[in-house]
Every structure is written in C-alpha cells, then in structure tokens.
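Recap for those who missed Tuesday's class. We walked through two folding examples back to back. For each one, the amino acid string is listed first and its predicted structure tokens come directly after. Nothing is annotated here on purpose, so try labeling regions yourself before you check the end of the notes.
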Amino acid sequence: MTTDSCVRQARVADDPALARLRWAFKQEDYEGDLPSPARSMDQAEEWIRERLDGGRWLAWVLEIEEEICGHVFLHLVERVPEPYEENTPVG
C-alpha cells in the first residue's frame, strides 16, 4: 500500500488546520475532563495567521493524501549585531 505524502512549508491559509492540530496536541496533556479553554480556536487561528504572515515564525506541514496531519514550528530570533559574523537569525 502506498500513501501519497508531502512535507511543505506552511502557508497562511493553513491556519485552521494548524490550530486544530495544536488544540488536539495540547488536549493530550489532560486526562478525563478537559478544562475550559483560555482562548478560542478562532484566536489560535488568528495568532498562527499573524505569525506566519509576519515571517518571524516558520512552519512546515506533513500532508498525507492532501490532508495536513503533522506540523513543526520554528521561531526566528534576531541576534545582537557583531562586527565579524553575519547576523542571521537563529531558531
């Protein structure tokens, strides 16, 4: 059995799927009854959309048969300038 899978850079439009995956991942931290969420899924989508659009956060997604089912985020941190090296961000 072959399954079509693809890893690609996340797009701003992926925010609903990324928020759902994040919520599902964090729900695993709780056994039994879940506490009331401190923020809505809409707020999570907006947060992700703004970060991906701003360029300081990067994300990649795993798609299996065109459905996003995995992800990883990287936050770029600006470095203090130095005289002898590039000041490329670190993650």
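Example two. Treat it independently of the first, because the proteins are unrelated.
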Amino acid sequence: MFRGASAINMDAKGRIAMPARFRDALRNGHDGMLVLTVDINSPCLLIYPLHEWELMETKLMLLSDIDPTERSLKRKLLGYAQECELDSHGRIVVPPILRSFANLDKKTMLVGLLNKFELWEEGAWQLQMEQNHELISNQNLASHPRLSQFTL
C-alpha cells in the first residue's frame, strides 16, 4: 500500500526517483513495472504498478466503444498510458507528452493513494490541497453515508 506525499525533483531528462520506501514493494510485488497515464479530472498523472493497471484495463474493457462518453474515457486513459520500468537507481522516466499534460518541470509531488500514485506539479498540488481542505470543511460528513465514519 502506498501512502504519503513526497517532494521529488525531476531531472532534465524527465526522470524522477521513487522514494526508497516504495522501491522494494514495486520491485518485488510488481517486477518494477509501472504504467503512467493522465488523471481524468485533475492536472496530474497516475502511476500504477503494472498489476494494478491490469485491473483497471479489465474495467476499461467493459466500457462501450459506441457510447461517446465511455469511448472518450477509454481513449484518454489508454491513449496516454505508457509502460515504464524502475531503473537500477529506482528512477522512472516520465515521457514528454505526460510531463506536458501535467505541467511538470523540476518540482513535483508524488502522492501515494493506496494502490497507485499521483504525480503533481508542486504548485498545482498545493492549490489542490487548499481546495480539498475547503471542500471537506464545508461538508457535513456525518450526513454522508460513506464519509460519516471519518468524523471525530
């Protein structure tokens, strides 16, 4: 399981080093193979261990090629999907098209979301966190069936 946010610098070749605490799990549990794609709602990338991505592909295969919305979702996620492998230093290369999509330059944030990661441009991540805080603060979580268990 992947959790926590890590500030990571991207080098001039578009490489990021996965935090050391995740490397063994990615190498041992997933053979160091990852799939990068875009997020459908946010200006960030999603990084899936290959086995987790294969579960996503199974769900995508169930979507229609005729329904415009379903086909658009498939086209976006699969069209941007890129396989990559951790190198011997625990780095991955983020392809230029994906760096462009998420506006990634030097300063990035890698965020563990249990079965995958998000990769954000640092400023966009900070803005997203502010928006998340505002959204959560303005909600009555106790009245939300799936969120009520998170109230104190």
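Answers for example two:
The first strand starts at residue 2 and ends at 9.
The CA atoms of residues 68 and 74 lie 10 Å apart.
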